[in-house]
Amino acid sequence: MTTRTRPTFRPLIVVVAVVAIVLVGFVIWRGNQSVAEQDRGKAAATARCIAALRDDMRTTFETKGGNSVADSEKLAEAAQFTEVKVKSAELTDEQRQMVQNQGNSVDSIDRAWRISGALVIPGFARSGATYGPNNTFACRTVVFKDGSATVIQRQIN
Questions:
Q1: 87 strand-pairing partners
Q2: Please, what is the average pLDDT of the chain?
Q3: What is the 3-state secondary structure (H, E, C) of 110-143?
Q4: What is the mean pLDDT of residues 17-46?
Q5: Is the sign of the CA dihedral 26, 32, 35, 41 positive or negative?
Q6: pLDDT score of 39
Q7: Residue 113 in contact with residue 87, Cβ under 8 Å?
Q8: CA 43, 120, 51 angle in degrees (round to 5)?
Q9: Residues near 88 by Cβ (< 8 Å), separated by ≥ 6?
Q10: Where are the alpha helices (DSSP H) in 3-133?
Q11: What is the pTM of this model?
């Protein structure tokens, strides 16, 4: 009868497998954390941009379009923001000055975002005094370290 000896490398394989799994898990976790850090403030910046543009539309519809307050509100709320692109942006010295003019410190800026896309206003006919039914928009929005956001530039074409 022959006796088989048990290989001694089996525990080593288990240890190597466990270490590999832990390393892969750490790399995946850190990668997800990095992506989240890159997108920090993106949603807040986009929401603030759209809210500011809706406010601009309401005011324009009332003052230049001759619409009632209620009609202006309906038109602004019905506006559809599509093809929205959000990209990290650098601020110019002029834009930094705008941040300071709004009462904020430049040191408190976490990120700046450039937001653009298409703007459709359903049921609205073109008028020389206001927007057309199909427009484009652009914003430059700053997100601060406390999570708040402010729009420093915005435009509807």
A1: 114
A2: 82
A3: EEEEEEEEEEECCCCCCCCCCCCCEEEEEEEEEE
A4: 71
A5: negative
A6: 67
A7: yes
A8: 35
A9: 38, 111, 112, 113, 114
A10: 10-38, 42-63, 69-78, 93-101
A11: 0.70
Which contacts (CB < 8 Å, 24+ apart) does range 27-33 have?
Answer: none
Q: What are phi and psi of 48, to 5 degrees?
A: -65, -40
Residue type, 25: G
- Specify whether the backbone of 20 is left (phi greater than 0), alpha (psi in -120 to 50) or beta: alpha
Tokens of 138: 């652009």
CB contact set of 157 (below 8 Å; sequence gap of 6+): 135, 136, 137, 138
CA distance 61 to 98: 26
124 token code pair: 């609205």
Would you say residue 54 has pLDDT above 90?
yes
Asked if residue 3 has pLDDT above 70, the reply is no
Read off the pLDDT of residues 63-117 as tens digits, 9 standing for 90 and up: 887 778 888 888 889 899 999 999 999 888 999 888 898 888 888 889 999 999 9
Q: Between 42-63 and 69-78, two packed helices, what is the crossing angle to 10 degrees?
A: 150
